Amino acid sequence: MSPLTPNPLSTLKISKYHIPAYQNFPNTSLRPYPLMIYHSAYPSSLSASTVEQHLSSVGVVQPAWRYTMYKQHHYHSTVDEVLVVVNGAAKLCFGGSVSNPDKVEAEVSKGDVMVVPAGVGHALIEDKGSFEMVGCYPEGSGNWDMCTGEDGEKDKNRKTIRELGWLKGDPMYRDQGPVVDVRE
């Protein structure tokens, strides 16, 4: 049993974004799954260890690291990523570049959860104080890569991203929730 319970699904505010390909960043153009941000998904009493315990007990993703977000725009071609803010706040950019007219700039803070589909570029724009996340990948997914939009990456990774399955359930709520809703 997890020592942390997410806020009720009925109270969850969620933002969903489809971001077209930009330069060498595929973003959400290759699969039907949006970038999702669950706002205030966890109560403010969370800690990194209680988040890790909760996510592990749900069994959809496996916590892999604790860190901030890289300032370099990057994406993963081999896995979808789930990020949980466990401390502080930040301004993030999704879409591969701050010059992308279709980018999403999001202010996130402790308790927010982001579901980042493979191919979606992301980077830290501004740490607003002690920003830290727990980063997670799907159970059994193996290794993740780090692509930075170099020439040739988009074409090389296109097939890998297209063939990826989606998360087996919602990382926080398992059999229901936003991830399950977009899968149906």
Task: Walk me through this protein's architecture.
15% of the residues lie in helices and 29% in strands. It is of the alpha+beta class and 184 residues long. The protein has a single domain, classed as Jelly Rolls. A six-stranded antiparallel β-sheet has the order 1-2-7-4-9-3, covered by helices on one side. The radius of gyration is 15 Å and the shape is globular. InterPro entries: Cupin_1, RmlC-like_jellyroll, RmlC_Cupin_sf, UCP019307_cupin, YjiB-like.
Task: Set down the secondary structure blueprint.
Blueprint: E1 13-17, E2 35-39, H1 48-58, E3 61-67, E4 81-87, E5 89-94, E6 104-109, E7 113-116, E8 122-127, E9 132-138, H2 153-163, H3 178-183
Antiparallel strand pairs: 1-2, 2-7, 3-9, 4-7, 4-9, 5-6, 5-8
Give a brief rundown of this model.
With 184 residues, the protein is of the alpha+beta class. 15% of the residues lie in helices and 29% in strands.
What would you call the quaternary organization?
single chain
What's the number of helices? 3
Main β-sheet, spatial strand arrangement: 1-2-7-4-9-3
The radius of gyration computed from the alpha-carbon positions, rounded to a whole number of angstroms, is 15 Å
Estimate nothing, just give the exact number of structural domains: 1
CATH architecture: Sandwich
Percent of residues in beta strands? Answer: 25-35%
CATH topology: Jelly Rolls
Rounded to the nearest angstrom, the distance between the terminal CA atoms is: 28 Å
H/E series:
EEHEEEEEEEHH
What is the overall pLDDT average? 94
Largest sheet: 6 strands, antiparallel
**CATH class label:** Mainly Beta
Task: Specify the overall morphology.
Answer: globular
Helix fraction by DSSP (H/I, runs of at least 4): 10-25%
Pfam families: Cupin_1
Organism: Kwoniella bestiolae CBS 10118
Protein name: Cupin domain-containing protein
InterPro entries: Cupin_1, RmlC-like_jellyroll, RmlC_Cupin_sf, UCP019307_cupin, YjiB-like
